[in-house]
Amino acid sequence: MSADVAQNQQETAPPELFVLRDEQGPILYAPLASLIARANESAVAAALAYAKDPGSIEGMTDDERAVVQTLGERGFFTHRAYPRHEVGFRPAQVTLFPTNNCNLRCSYCYAFGGEGGGNGEPLRRMDLRVAQRAIDLIARNAKERATEGENIRNFLVSIHGNGEPFCAFDLIQKIVWYGQDVAEELEIPAVFNAATNGVLSEEQLDFVIANFHSVNISFDGLPAFQNANRPMAGGRGSFDQVDHTMRRLVEAGVDFGIRTTVTAAMVDSMPEIVAFVADNYPGIEQLHFEPVWECGRCLTSSDTMPSAEAFTRRYLESLEVARERGVRLVFSGARQDMLVDTFCKVSSGSFTVTPTGDVTACYEVSYASDPRSKRFFFGHFDHELDDFVFDQKVLDELSRLNVHNMRFCDDCFCRWHCAGDCAAKVLDGIGVDEHHGSMRCEISRALTLNQIQRKLDWRPTDGR
Ligand code: SF4
Ligand code: SF4
Ligand code: SF4
Fold this sequence. Notes:
Layout: H1 3-10, E1 12-13, E2 18-22, E3 25-30, E4 35-38, H2 41-52, H3 62-74, E5 80-81, E6 93-96, H4 128-147, E7 155-159, H5 169-186, E8 190-196, H6 202-211, E9 214-218, H7 223-229, H8 239-252, E10 255-262, H9 270-280, E11 286-291, H10 308-325, E12 329-330, E13 352-353, E14 358-360, H11 373-376, E15 377-382, E16 387-390, H12 392-399, H13 423-426, H14 439-457
Parallel strand pairs: 6-7, 6-13, 7-8, 8-9, 9-10, 10-11, 11-12
Antiparallel strand pairs: 1-5, 2-3, 3-4, 13-14, 14-15, 15-16
Helix pairs in contact: 2-3, 4-5, 9-10, 10-14
The structure holds iron/sulfur cluster (3 copies).
C-alpha cells in the first residue's frame, strides 16, 4: 500500500445522515456506516440535530434522548473513514483494444465501430508487441505486489474494443498464449475477460470457452431490437448469430453477462427482455440495463434516450420479473452495497491500450482526435524504448475526478455509491468542480432508494 493510500484511509468523516422519504414516511440513512432506519419525524429531527451538534442533547426531551441513544448504540453517529480510490499507478490489469474494426454497425455506437471513430481515422490493429509489453508490465506488478503482501492473486487481461475485438482473432489468440506463457514463467495466474458483440465463428467460440474466465455480450434483449439496432455491417440482422453464441456459452457453463442498451423505443419492453433472457439463456451471470447516451453514431441515427421516469419505472417492473426468474439485474449508477469515491477506475489511471498504442483511462475515449483525449490519454507505447511511457501530470489530474471534488454531489445520498457517475458523460468539456449531474441522477437516486427499501423490508425466510 502506498503512503498516500495509508494517509487517506486515516481521514474520518463526521456522521453523515440523510433523510429519505417514501410512502411509509422518513428513512434515516447513514451511507458511510451502511445503516438504515425508519423513524418518525421527531426522531429524525433529534437525530439530525445531534449529528450536527452533540451538545444539542442537553435541550432534548427524554424521548428524543432515548432515540439518540439507540441510534448512537447502533453506530449512526460514529465517525467513519471516507472511501478513497487507490493512488499510485501500478496496474495489475490491462484492457486491450485489439482493433477498431467491427462486423456490426450499431445505430447508437459511441465509437463509430468499423468506421474509425467518425473522425476519418484509419482502421487499425494493435501491434502484438504493444500487447506483450502491456502484459509484461501488469504481470510483473502483480507478482511484486503479491510478494509485498497485497491481496493480488493474478493479473487480469480484458479484451475490449472501440470495435469488435474478435475481428482481430489471430491477434487475440497470440495475446492469450503470450499471457499464459508469462503466467507460467512468473508463477502467477493470468485471468482473461472479454467484451464482445457475440457475432463469433465456431472456432472463436471454442477459443473463448477454452480460455476466457468471463464474457460480456452486448445484446439488445429481443430479436427485433437486436436486428434493428445492432445490424451486421452489410445490413443483415445479427440476432441468430448472437443467440447461437449465448446458447453455446450457457451449454459450456461459461460465466457471461448481457449488456442491453435501452433506447426510448425499447424502454417499455424492459420487463419482456428480462423474461426472454431468463427463458433462453438460463444461468447468465447478470443482465445489465443502461439507457443509451446520445453520442457517437446515436447523434446521426433516430435513437434517443428514454426519459428517466420511464427507465426507472420499467426497471422497477423488470426487477420483479428478474427476482421471479432468478436473474441479477444491474444499472451502473445504483449500487448501494458499494462505498467508493469514484464511479469507475478512471481516477486511478485505468490502464487501457488502444489499437494505436495510446493509453487511455476511459473506454469511451479512444482516439487522439477526440477532444476529451487531453483529459483521459495518459501515456503511449514508445517503439524505440520498447516500453510504455506515462504522463504523471495527466494521472494527477485524473485522480481529481472523484466525488470529493464534485460539489454538486455533496448533498446526494448516493454520493458514496454512484460517486459522481461516469466522468466521460457528466464532465464532457467541463471541470470536475462544474459537474452538474444529468438525467441519470434521477435514475440512480430512485433505484438506490429502492435498494434501501428492499433492505428495510427484508425478512429472514426461515420463519424467524
Ligand atoms: S459492436 Fe460495439 S463497436 Fe461494433 S458497432 Fe456495435 S457498439 Fe460499436
Ligand atoms: S469514465 Fe465512463 S465511459 Fe469512461 S471508463 Fe469510466 S464509466 Fe466508462
Ligand atoms: S448527484 Fe448525481 S452524479 Fe452525483 S452522486 Fe448523486 S446521483 Fe450520482
